[in-house]
Write a structure and sequence with these properties.
Blueprint: H1 3-17, H2 23-32, H3 40-61, H4 67-86, H5 91-108, H6 129-142, H7 147-156, H8 162-199, H9 201-221, H10 224-244
Helix pairs in contact: 1-2, 1-9, 1-10, 2-3, 2-5, 2-10, 3-8, 3-9, 4-6, 4-8, 5-10, 6-8, 7-8
Length: about 240
């Protein structure tokens, strides 16, 4: 399955270029090759952490991280991400939920974005905490970071400018992926956790390289709109494949 590390590399490159981790598509690719669904979220969440850590640090160094708002949303979701990681789920339900999540995530990428300059928050933007908790639970349960859903909501409510929303999504994904991993570790035990990571070592290397290239180079090669459309097409395709079997 030499194509699998390549798929992870391309996913990390595309998602990192638009400020996301790619956990939804990592999960889909693993499910399509028959990876043990109980260990699948561990690999996806670890890949998320690898990709968005660099993005979060770069946004912070550039002074683009709105710390108060980003931490509030992230910390509201983190306990639910932990509970999602703890929740037992049947394989059929897991794959159906993952497939629907992927299609929703792909469609979300087509939603309009806020202008680059800082936007004036609307009343709805001040109450985005309602969205954080369920996204956190979903993150821990199926191995996605949730930022791909959060960012479109923040854009629609003019929560902030585009770069600050991307920074918030990166921190949100990072914190919720870590919380989800703790839940998965508690549920599966250290032995199975290590087994999942040992088998996925080439995939982790692929996302390290893809994530770095994506965040540093991709936006200079292709317009961001094209990258978002390619990412959406990949995500919707993977979700459709899971649902249709």
């Amino acid at each position: 399955m030499i194509w699998l590390p390549l798929g992870f590399f391309l996913t990390a490159l595309l998602y990192a270029s638009v400020g996301f981790g790619g956990g939804s598509t990592y999960s889909a690719l693993l499910a399509l090759v028959g990876f043990d669904y109980r260990l699948l979220p561990i690999v996806s969440l670890c890949c998320n952490v690898v990709v968005v850590t660099g993005s979060t640090l770069r946004f912070a160094r550039a002074g683009e991280m709105p710390w108060r708002g980003a931490l509030t949303l992230s910390l509201l979701a983190a306990p639910l991400a932990f509970l999602g990681g703890l929740t037992p789920i049947r394989e059929e339900a897991f794959l159906a939920l993952l497939g629907m999540s992927l299609i929703a995530a792909g469609l979300a990428l087509f939603l309009p974005r806020a202008p680059q300059a800082a936007a004036t928050p609307t009343r709805a933007a001040r109450h985005m905490g309602w969205a954080a908790a369920p996204l956190g639970y979903l993150a821990g349960l199926v191995g996605i970071g949730g930022g791909v859903f959060l960012a479109p909501l923040l854009h629609l409510t003019r929560w902030n400018g585009a770069r600050r929303i991307a920074a918030t999504a990166s921190l949100f994904i990072l914190i919720n992926s870590l919380a989800g991993l703790v839940g998965q570790l508690t549920k599966n035990g250290a032995g199975r956790f290590a087994e999942a990571l040992t088998g996925a070592l080439p995939l982790l290397v692929a996302v390290v390289i893809g994530g770095q290239l994506g965040s540093l180079l991709a936006l200079r090669i292709l317009p961001e709109r094209v990258i978002r459309w390619l990412t959406a097409a990949l995500t919707i395709w993977a979700g459709s494949r899971l649902l249709l079997g």
